[in-house]
From TrEMBL:
<dbReference type="InterPro" id="IPR043128">
    <property type="entry name" value="Rev_trsase/Diguanyl_cyclase"/>
</dbReference>
<dbReference type="Pfam" id="PF00072">
    <property type="entry name" value="Response_reg"/>
</dbReference>
<dbReference type="InterPro" id="IPR001789">
    <property type="entry name" value="Sig_transdc_resp-reg_receiver"/>
</dbReference>
<feature type="domain" description="PAS">
    <location>
        <begin position="145"/>
        <end position="218"/>
    </location>
</feature>
<feature type="domain" description="EAL">
    <location>
        <begin position="450"/>
        <end position="705"/>
    </location>
</feature>
<dbReference type="InterPro" id="IPR011006">
    <property type="entry name" value="CheY-like_superfamily"/>
</dbReference>
<dbReference type="Pfam" id="PF00990">
    <property type="entry name" value="GGDEF"/>
</dbReference>
<protein>
    <submittedName>
        <fullName>Bifunctional diguanylate cyclase/phosphodiesterase</fullName>
    </submittedName>
</protein>
<dbReference type="InterPro" id="IPR052155">
    <property type="entry name" value="Biofilm_reg_signaling"/>
</dbReference>
<dbReference type="Pfam" id="PF00563">
    <property type="entry name" value="EAL"/>
</dbReference>
<keyword id="KW-0597">Phosphoprotein</keyword>
<dbReference type="InterPro" id="IPR029787">
    <property type="entry name" value="Nucleotide_cyclase"/>
</dbReference>
<dbReference type="InterPro" id="IPR035919">
    <property type="entry name" value="EAL_sf"/>
</dbReference>
<dbReference type="InterPro" id="IPR000014">
    <property type="entry name" value="PAS"/>
</dbReference>
<dbReference type="InterPro" id="IPR035965">
    <property type="entry name" value="PAS-like_dom_sf"/>
</dbReference>
<dbReference type="InterPro" id="IPR001633">
    <property type="entry name" value="EAL_dom"/>
</dbReference>
<dbReference type="InterPro" id="IPR000700">
    <property type="entry name" value="PAS-assoc_C"/>
</dbReference>
């Protein structure tokens, strides 16, 4: 709406028991430029009085209220005879309820979670109401001249009917007959009430009731959407309109005429739109809105029947992102459709299977005997999902992790039960081999702590409380510090430190690791510059750890370039530590990115070497300058022959490939001596120093300590 124009006045009757919800509806319209004047009512009496006393452009009704319902409001509205839009604004609504309301005359639905749709829906329905009023006015103006009236109806491609009540005859125009498959010579001289026999049996009583109301003068016009039987036996949706002429002396109707419009295609479109609004387009499963609605009915059953028990299963596919990235979205979509088919195959009658989006699915298990039945179903479902899928000659085993919540948890809102099943699923994902978890209250506490931690982490990012601590890396030939590893620490405003074990996993799950990693690159680069100026005779490199999540950023190389440029340091003074397991995320893309970085002179270190399963198969492709031996081997180097041989082998392997080797986790002088005997290049560990704040690390460099 053009802001320069005078706002359009919109008089709205809001049927809602919540003033806050009514204000949200009004605000959504005012933001679109409407000058909204409204009254809120929440009882049938108040609504009837408001409809009688005031002039309205629009009715907005909640679906369910303590003393009132949208269906009650619609009946009250229809009795008024107003030709204005009636729109339901609701939190959730079942598919069957929505269809019933549409059949009863609701113009449209808007979910309270999608109020941004409201102005567009209102604008469209106001236009439609204007069109309906214009058409009725035209019909009224033309009813005295059957020839002109029929011409207008034919121009609109409608059929015409004319019922002479006094003479008990009825006329159907050729177009009316053709719409139902009859020739012009047929249906001549039939009984006036015979048109009702064309109507669907489920709708005859309603049609007859509406007709009687109009003939009694209780409604200003007759209008009904209903099905009629075509001559070929099929059912067509039609809109029947009509108006009766009343004898002023007897107050009885003596004639009635109207039109018949074929609305079959519009009804099909409405039904498809309603289906699309409640189902996932890729798999055809219920979507989150429909699933939530069914779960709401199940929880209502649980409140009425203490013996009733249901369960919600939330599941994520394993390795789906890897499949999607490796084979493309077309293959990913195929995996999702196969998963949907397998879930539908194992569900029981009465169960509901839904896709929430991505690789997130949910199942509502209706009327289970015990928690054990839910777990048995889950195990059977997991076996079915684990069956291999052939993808371009490769066997892929999708698998899933599942969280389960039970209605016995005392839920009143379906969102809470879904939330707890999702929490249990994330617990299963973090527990390695565990495929499913049953929700318990302890998980809820863990989730709340995680939410609190998330808020604190976002605040800490803004306050730049994430800082690098530096652990020295010693050259075993000279015994002097050659480099530092920058390890992220969270130093809160009161000076206390939060363990990385507490915040790193959560930061990766939330995607905050990208922002933290960027800060580490910037701060480490600035520290290199400071040491370069303070110790011009020393060449001190700093290595920064990169998370696998950071490689999903398209601008990672630009971030690193920017940090180096801002600090004005030589690129070869910055080193990047990558764990070998990161390669499995998307090998080709990551290797290409690392090669780009190494071409700039930036050093690449493979961290935790020897602990993964991809070491030898990917080592020849990995653009690495150095290998870092995992501390679990180094700590046992003096008392475990196997560990010593592993370390010796890694040192030889690295040297043969032209790489330097760094041993992590050195804690004793004996370990240090053994590593020197193996010709290991560098060592790192508590023997030299724990991770230090920048100031303490600077003092350590200044001390020129040798080991």
């Amino acid at each position: 709406m053009d802001q320069a124009q005078t706002p359009a006045l919109l008089r709205v009757l809001v049927v809602d028991d919540s003033e806050d919800d009514a204000l949200l509806d009004v605000l959504a319209l005012r933001r679109q430029g409407y000058d909204v004047q409204y009254i809120r009512v929440d009882t049938p009496e108040a609504m009837a009085e408001a409809l009688q006393r005031n002039s309205w452009d629009l009715v907005l009704s909640d679906y369910s209220m303590p003393q009132f319902s949208a269906m009650d409001a619609l009946r009250c509205f229809r009795e008024s005879g107003l030709i204005i839009p009636f729109i339901v604004v609701t939190g959730t609504i079942g598919e069957e309820s929505a269809v019933a309301m549409m059949k009863a005359g609701v113009n449209d639905f808007v979910l309270k979670t999608h109020l941004k749709r409201l102005p567009g829906v209102v604008e469209r329905e106001l236009r439609e109401a204007d069109n309906r009023r214009a058409k009725l006015a035209a019909e009224a103006a033309l009813r005295e001249s059957q020839e002109r009236y029929e011409l207008a109806i034919r121009g609109a491609n409608d059929g015409l009917w004319d019922w002479n009540i006094a003479e008990r005859t009825i006329y159907f125009s050729p177009r009316w007959k053709a719409m139902l498959g009859y020739d012009e010579e047929e249906l001549i001289g039939v009984e006036p009430e015979s048109w009702l026999r064309f109507a669907h049996p489920d709708e005859i009583d309603n049609l007859r009731q509406r007709l009687i109301q109009h003939l009694k003068g209780e409604t200003p016009h007759f209008e009904a959407e209903h099905r009629v039987r075509h001559k070929d036996g099929s059912w067509r949706w039609v809109l029947t309109r009509g108006m009766a002429l009343i004898d002023p002396n007897t107050r009885l109707a003596y004639r009635m005429a109207g039109s018949l419009t074929d609305i079959t295609e519009r009804k099909r479109t409405e039904e498809q739109l309603l289906y699309d609004a409640l189902h996932d387009s890729l798999t055809g499963l219920a979507n989150r809105a429909l699933f939530t609605d069914f779960l709401g009915f199940a929880l209502g059953h649980a409140l009425r029947d203490n013996g009733y028990l249901c369960a919600v299963l939330c599941l994520n596919l394993e390795r789906f992102r890897y499949i999607n990235d490796s084979f493309g979205h077309r293959v990913g979509d195929r995996i999702l459709r196969i998963t949907a088919e397998r879930l539908s195959a194992v569900r029981r009658p009465g169960d509901v299977v839904a896709r929430f989006g991505g690789d997130e699915f949910a199942i509502l298990l209706d009327a289970i005997a015990s928690p054990a039945e839910a777990m048995a179903f889950t195990e059977n479902m997991l076996r079915e999902l684990a069956q291999p899928v052939d993808i371009e000659g490769h066997e892929v085993y999708p698998g899933a992790r599942v969280g389960i919540s039970l209605s016995s948890g005392g839920y009143t809102h379906p969102e809470e039960m879904i939330r707890d099943a999702d929490t249990a699923m994330h617990r299963a994902k973090s527990h390695g081999k565990v495929k499913y978890e049953l929700f318990n209250r302890e998980m809820h506490g863990t989730m709340l702590r995680a939410l609190k931690m998330e808020q604190e982490m976002r605040r800490a990012l803004e306050a730049r409380e994430f800082v690098p601590f530096y652990q020295p890396i010693v050259d075993l030939r000279s015994g002097r510090i050659a480099a530092f590893e920058a390890l992220v620490r969270w130093r809160q405003s009161d000076g206390s430190l939060v363990s990385p074990a507490e915040f790193i996993p959560l930061s990766e799950e939330l995607g905050l690791i990208n922002a933290i990693g960027r800060q580490m690159l910037e701060l480490a680069s600035l520290q290199i510059a400071e040491w370069r100026q303070r110790f011009p005779s020393e060449v001190l490199r700093v290595s920064v750890n990169l998370s696998g999540k950071q490689f999903n950023q398209d601008d990672l190389v630009q971030q690193i370039d920017g940090a180096i440029e801002a600090a004005q340091i030589e690129p070869d003074l910055l080193e990047l530590e990558i764990t070998e397991t990161i390669l499995m995320e998307n090998t080709d893309a990551i290797v290409s990115m690392l090669e780009t970085l190494r071409d700039r002179g930036i050093q690449i270190l493979m961290d935790d070497f020897g602990t993964g399963y991809s070491s030898l198969s990917y080592l020849h492709r990995f653009p690495s300058n150095a290998l870092k031996i995992d501390g679990s081997f180094v700590r046992r180097i003096t008392d475990d022959r196997g560990s010593a041989e592993i370390v010796r082998t890694i040192v030889l392997l690295g040297h043969n490939l032209g790489m330097k080797v760094i041993a992590e986790g050195v804690e004793t002088k004996e370990q240090l001596a053994t590593l020197r005997g193996m010709a290991c290049d560098y060592a790192q560990g508590y023997l030299f120093a724990r991770p230090l704040p920048a100031a303490d690390a600077t003092e350590l460099v200044a001390s020129k300590t040798r080991w």
